[in-house]
Amino acid sequence: MLDNIQLALASLRANKMRALLTMLGIIIGIGSVIAIVTVGNSLTATVNESLVNMGGNNMQVGVEYRPDENGEYDYSVAMTDEDLLNDDMLDAFRQRFGQQTRALILTESMSGTGKAQDGRLYANVRITGVNDGFFAAEKVKMLAGRVFRTQDYEGARKVAVVSDRLVENMFQGSTEAALGQTLEVALGESVESFAIVGVYRYQPQGLFLGTTPTATKDTVTDLYLPIYTEQQLSGQSGHYYNYFELVPQTGVDPNDLVDRIQSFFDKSFYAHNRNFQVKAYNLKNEMESITSVLDTISLAIGVIAGISLLVGGIGVMNIMLVSITERTREIGVRKALGAPAGAIRTQFIVEAMVICLVGGLLGILAGLLLGAAGASLMGSPARPNPGVILAAVGFSMAIGVFFGYYPASKAARMDPIEALRYE
């Protein structure tokens, strides 16, 4: 076997350009598969990390249209305050599910953006009302000051938690100078004043291929207010909510909790509402669905790229047939000296395997480099799959056996007398 391998390597060195062209299909095929799998893994991991950072392990509970007995939705019916969630419902929910939940998050944002301005200094903001569960769930990282207190919520006080980007724009980056200051914000035709009580770290979220947008002076950041304050500024007559987010306790079965939440609202507050219902969603299941779709897409593209391996294998068979024709006299000499057909067959199968193995190794190197480059363009680390790499090596050797067997068998069946007088 060692002699056969040395003969195969000598044959490659003797015909370097032909050997490279022969291996090109194998290199492209394996390189493409590994690159696609690497980029696909990086994309899947990046999407999952982004969803987790955005609350991917949480649950969403919101009011939506109820289908009729035919599964149709009547969107002509307007949603009123009586159809929305209210504080009484949320209090009942806390009493029922308080042990299974870590935080109940309420957020509401005013339409459009505002501008905080002091002379020539300014910062673009989005007014967002939040409850205490928002900070309990660690949605933001506080850098200075405090979060809202009970009296801030109950009194609908005009206090605000602002971003470090706003502090950078308007207070030269000094959180100490910002705390306690009154901030004037233009909201449409009105101007509202808020006392700054806290500063949080702004973290831009990329929503496409793991990209992270660069924060600039004009970047819009959230200016957080107590949720009752935001509702008052929005002109709401009471405390009503379209949805809330839920952070379950560790160890709680999310699917079971979703079912029980759904049953709770269906049997209590929305049992007689014919037009609207509360729907609970487990975002973890949504994450798994997204991951499954991405994996399927990567697999489909990988299979398509793998077709080039078939083309490469045919190229190996073609070159092996040419090589056997060129070495007909050599084969005749070997057989005349007593080489059995099995030895001749093994020699050429090993040569085909060596060609495919060398091409496979070069393809792995090319695939890793291309995968790393693709992952880098997405702003995420490369995540090659060791199993796919090992499979690629095995597959390349299998191609050598499969496509090398026919030429090797042809060589083994040669008549030594005919082979010796070929030239």
How does this model look, in words?
The protein is an alpha+beta fold and about 425 residues long. It has 2 domains: about 1-50 and about 290-420, no CATH class; about 105-245, no CATH class. It contains 14 helices and 14 strands. The protein has helices spanning about 1-15, 15-55, 85-95, 130-135, 150-155, 165-170, 175-180, 225-235, 255-265, 285-325, 330-335, 340-375, 385-410, 415-420; strands at about 60-65, 85, 100-105, 105-110, 115-120, 120-130, 140-145, 160-165, 180-185, 190-200, 220-225, 240, 245-250, 275-280. The strands form 3 sheets. Strands 4, 5, 6, 7, 8, 9, 10 and 11 form an 8-stranded mixed sheet that branches. A 4-stranded antiparallel sheet has the order 3-13-1-14. Strands 2-12 form a two-stranded antiparallel sheet. Helix 2 (about 15-55) packs across helix 12 and helix 10 (about 285-325) runs antiparallel to helix 12. It is elongated.
